[in-house]
Amino acid sequence: MLETDASSTTDPGDSAGTGPARLRQRGSNHTGMRQFNERVVLQALRTHGSLAKAEIARVTGLTAQTIGLITARLDEDHLLCREAPVRGRVGQPSVPLGLNPDGAFAIGIKIGRRSTDWLLVDFTGQVRERIVLDYAFPDIDVLLPAIRQHLNQLLDGLGPLRSRVVGVGVAAPFQLGGWHRMLGLTDAQSEAWNRIDLAEQVQQMTELPVSFAKDTSAACVAELLHGRGHDIPSFLYLFLDTFIGGGLVINSHLHRGLHGNAGAVASLPLGVAQQGAAAPAQLISQASLWDLEQRFQEHGLAPMAAYDERALQEPWASHSREWIASAAAALAHCIVSATAFLDLEAVVLDGAADPGMLQALAEGVQTSLRAYNWEGLQTPPRLELGSIGSDARALGGALLPLHACFAPDTELFLKA
Fold first, then answer.
1. Does domain 9-101 have CATH number 1.10.10.10?
2. Lowest-pLDDT choice from 62-71, 182-191, 321-330
3. Which of 226, 292, 369, 379 measures 20 to 30 Å from 161, CA to CA?
């Protein structure tokens, strides 16, 4: 975690002091009420948008004098921007304050089985730059140099604002080589990825602090902080990609579980195991875009159409409809099982597929849920579509260091 430095300095590369000030770090260890209240103010602006000082005092419960001192410090740190004065009937016009997009930056890197994404994210959570590298499956000897190259490319592109980057977040499957036979990989290829510590590899590429999260947990973080999490305090998160994955939010916190693997829905069995018989299939085999890829390939169609609008166009559409029916039934089974354990308020479904595909899948899940016996349970949880899409994993990675540096609740994860 970052330690607190009470002073603000200029960028070392700007001896005249005319460039952007180096960001005063706000650590997540015990730093006193001053830093905590600064974080409270920043969170209020992130949640409510631009506010006048009097409104900030109202929503935070801090005194007007305290707000004046805090906003002066944040302004000095270039974390705030002032908007046009709003004139009322009486007294001086109020000046709304908002987050300065250039106040801080973070980089999120999503390493997946079909692609790696790099996102440069600003202080407001907006994506400034995006780099995407597609592949059939990542080659370690090719991908690691590419990660370094594109990380430096994004940092260099910031110019004098580079000093305001607070960290790098890496989002990847816990075992990138998992289920390797489904992808046609050798045991050696799988083992090579399962042995590697991706966070450590990226840390060797930069002096910035590097954090790591399971890819679908990172996507869940993005939905929690910048999506439906504002309205739904507890939900099961399902992310549709090459392989299905998930996350779990309880009381507005991402629940990690004992091994950091809560929400590992891919491994959910779809039947009851019987002695002497083959183990039942897992959810991953029936509700993943990998399965749709195979259907397309078997009919001589481009398999990567599973990830874009072609999936709902002929000649792919008829195969997609068959897959939607199968995947929706499997996801409904997952939701009923999760509801029995968690008494869910909602399920949020997002993914790397075309929005139209996700909508059609959600409708199929709703139909399948009605076929279950809900006796002993409350009504089915409501099913919501996610708001972020394919960027969710890399965006969630970038939000981890931003949240650690600036949010009052620095511990984003609840430990079991």
1. yes
2. 182-191
3. 226
Condensed to tens digits (0 to 9), the pLDDT of residues 139-155 reads 888 999 999 999 999 99
At a CB cut-off of 8 Å and minimum separation 6, what does 223 contact?
229, 237, 348, 350, 386, 387, 388, 392, 396
Query: Within a 10 A sphere around the Cβ of 368, how many other Cβ atoms?
Result: 19
Residue 54 has pLDDT above 80, yes or no: yes
Here the tokens at position 413 are 């994860």
Q: Is 240 helix (H, G, I), strand (E, B) or coil?
A: strand
Tell me how many degrees the CA angle 100-104-108 measures, rounded to the nearest 5: 125
Tell me the two tokens of residue 96. 């709304």
Give the pTM: 0.85
What is 127-191 written as a DSSP string? EEEEEEEE-SS--HHHHHHHHHHHHHHHHHHTGGGGGGEEEEEEEE-S-TTTTTTTTT--HHHHH
Distance of alpha carbon 46 from alpha carbon 403, whole angstroms: 11
pLDDT band at 29 (very low <50, low <70, confident <90, very high): very low
Number of CB atoms found within 10 A of residue 8's CB? 13
Cα distances (Å, whole numbers) of residue 186 to 65, 182, 197:
65, 10, 20
The reply to whether 9-101 and 228-387 are identical in fold is: no
Q: In terms of CATH architecture, what is 104-221+393-414?
A: 2-Layer Sandwich (3.30)
Pairing of strands 97-99, 105-111: unpaired
Burial of 406 (0-12, 13-18, 19+ CB in 10 A): buried
